[in-house]
Amino acid sequence: MKAITIFALFVLFYSTHAYVAKLDEYQASLQTWKSIQPRTYTYRHQTEYFLPTETSRNYTDITVTDGKVVKRAYTITDGFDNILSEWAEETPEEIGSHDQGFKALTLDQLYSQCRENVLVYDDVLFTIAFTTDANGVMIQCDSRNSLWSHPNIMGFSLNYIAFE
Q1: pTM for this one?
Q2: CB 32 within 8 Å of CB 107
Q3: Which residues contact 153 (CB under 8 A, 6 or more apart)?
Q4: Using one digit for the tens of pLDDT, what is the confidence trace for 88-147?
Q5: 45-73 pLDDT, tens per residue?
Q6: What CA–CA distance (Å, rounded) separates 9 from 17?
Q7: What value does the mean pLDDT take over residues 74-101?
Q8: Mean pLDDT, to the nearest integer, of 12-38?
Q9: CA–CA separation, 40 and 69 (whole Å)
Q10: Which of 22, 34, 112, 126 could form a disulfide with 121 if both were Cys (CB 3.0 to 4.6 A apart)?
Q11: From CA 59, how far away is CA 44, in angstroms rounded?
Q12: Where do the structural domains in the chain lie, given as residue ranges?
């Protein structure tokens, strides 16, 4: 019984420690973002599919100006980077009108989603990844269930953020 209690305390301590560390990283990155926050920036979200008979890459580029998404462009390529399909949404009425691609969100909205939907999980049952770019701006915030053989990933990972 003592061993179980000691193990439970260790797990609780480890989980709390890791959670606090992720929150500290998040807060530091959020402060960095708020200090940089350019007038215009573009980020890319990419998804890759590898199947025995087919490989494809989906890219969504989101451009934000003055805190509003002003463009969402989507491209799907085959395994040889040949463009199979592409489109762009450039008016307020168009933005978000296609089902494919990453949602039309600002980095402020992604920071909120990270805090509210990903960083709420503990590090015992979930593997949480929080990564920043060279500027200290968040580019990855996701969690994977550590117990499943094929983990369900919640969150996002960006390829890059370009400031204009």
Answers
A1: 0.84
A2: no
A3: 142, 143, 144
A4: 999 999 999 999 999 999 999 999 999 999 998 877 788 889 999 999 999 999 988 877
A5: 998 887 777 789 999 999 999 999 999 99
A6: 12
A7: 95
A8: 82
A9: 10
A10: 126
A11: 7
A12: 20-163
Instruction: Kindly state the helix (H) or strand (E) to which residue 3 belongs, with its residue range.
Output: helix 2-36
Reduce the DSSP state of residue 5 to 3 states and report it: helix
Taking the C-alpha atoms of residue 54 and residue 144, their distance in angstroms, rounded to an integer, is: 25
Phi-psi region of 3 (alpha: psi -120 to 50; beta: other; left: phi over 0): alpha
| Distance, CA of 122 to CA of 92 (rounded, Å) | 38
Q: What are the residues whose beta carbons fall under 8 Å from the beta carbon of 95, sequence distance 6 or more?
A: 69, 70, 71, 72, 89, 104
Write a three-state SS string for 11-59. Answer: HHHHHHHHHHHHHHHHHHHHHHHHHHCCCEEEEEEEEEEECCCCEEEEE
- pLDDT at residue 13 tops 60: no
User: Can you tell me the distance from the alpha carbon of 25 to that of 44, in angstroms, rounded to the nearest whole number?
Assistant: 22
The dihedral sign for the CA sequence 74, 93, 33, 118: negative
The predicted pLDDT at position 17 comes to 53
